[in-house]
TrEMBL record:
Catalyzes the reversible transamination between alanine and 2-oxoglutarate to form pyruvate and glutamate. Belongs to the class-I pyridoxal-phosphate-dependent aminotransferase family. Alanine aminotransferase subfamily. The lineage of its organism: Eukaryota, Metazoa, Chordata, Craniata, Vertebrata. It comes from Chionis minor. Its cofactor is pyridoxal 5'-phosphate. It comes from the Eukaryota. This is alanine transaminase. Residues 128-527 form the Aminotransferase class I/classII large domain. The gene is Gpt2. One of its GO terms (cellular component) is cytoplasm.
Amino acid sequence: CEGPGGCRGGRKDMALRCAASLAAGRQPPCPRLPRPAREGTVRWNSAAKASAVKLNEKAGREKILTLESMNPQVKAVEYAVRGPIVLKAGEIEKELRKGIKKPFTEVIKANIGDAHAMGQRPITFLRQVVALCTYPNLLDSPSFPEDAKKRARRILQGCGGNSLGSYSASQGINCIREDVASYIERRDGGVPADPDNIYLTTGASDGIATILKILVSGGGKSRTGVMIPIPQYPLYSAAISELDAIQVNYYLDEENCWALDVNELRRSLNEAKAYCNPKVLCIINPGNPTGQVQNRKCIEDVIHFAWEEKLFLLADEVYQDNVYSEGCQFHSFKKILYEMGPEYYNYVELASFHSTSKGYMGECGYRGGYMEVINLHPEIKGQLVKLLSVRLCPPVSGQAAMDIVVNPPIPGEESYSQFIKEKESVLNNLAKKAKLTEDMFNKVPGFHCNPLQGAMYAFPQIFIPSKAIEEAKAHKMAPDMFYCMKLLEETGICVVPGSGFGQREGSYHFRMTILPPVEKLKILLEKVKDFHIKFLEKYA
């Protein structure tokens, strides 16, 4: 094939085709080569084959982006809520659709707090206002109540061109920020809130990641340390990894209903000072995945600790409407901070977060949220707005949804009775399911489940026999990942192993949402019970 028209005779296109054919085990198309005597049989001496493979390698081109060349901080990110167990659940769903037989007929995704995916009905008033904003021609329809139209007109007046399709200011639509400030004042019994301290966000997650981004600095032992609860919501560990900050763990007290102990905060802080500069303290209240609701004294202790140690406080309060246990009450960090007096209120830097995704709304897909940031240095405020402007603005439909959360119908308005009925129905139903889950789990041998005081998850501790732990090691899995994978494969129930949230060494848990309808939840809990008993029998 050296002659004219051959692959080494100047025809580069032929050279590429020959090399590709050889690599695939096919007869090369070069016209200078003799055809094989029998179709499909190609004989090459080793030198010719090596030469062609080398040519093919040259013809190809290495990928610029590989696991070795990618951003190592992104590679370090883990997010258990949508991790390997969920990918496996997706594969099983595909197999079920193809008719492959399983010991179950559906996958129950109890891994994530997605209320509407679990069958919760939307709040009518919220959807009416968003529909009116999305398609303003409906403002002339008699099918929509006047209080919904009034809110929709106000939101649209705040939009460029009176359209939800326009960009908003990076900080969010002004009238919605005003409504958020009014909501916070009502919630906190008159504690003042400034709309200029309100930032509308793409869900609470966006706000948390943004604040962390502006807080992280330094290198070596001066690198920013971020204190997070263990167990924690994996957003925090993921954001810390992505920013190459230092994760500083403090442990919640499982034996005391996942309480937060300031002595544990102090231990964690003092140990971390040896290798980083701890300057951020994250609190999740009510807790995710643990469901505890912090009392007033605990919050006062945490604020005093942050003031004393000069820590920037992040208060994740997205479950503030989800409080179920008698004697428990949600207290916002902002309110308690204000009531502790000016020596605290004027100095402690606090960012608190809320969202449309949880509570009674469950509107995860709108990606609506806000953060209130107080006592921020004026120059840093400008830097924060600059950082937010890079992503232009949060989804405007999500901003509209957030407005209805903070500006719902009030007594005397046309939609109030239906709204309050729907809201109370959702919350009462969740309270019933929280108690049902706690009671049923505590009847299972080898289970211990603390009271689900709030939020929308159970996080039971489970006993895993040593034989099962050894088998998990053989499969290169964490023991609770092994357990959850077996649960998924044998029952179709998808939960998240506790190792994805963090837990004390030697203890094992999983997180399960309580969102499925009551009857389905009962079936789910019975299946978990039966599986666990069989698991113990097999590995005991």
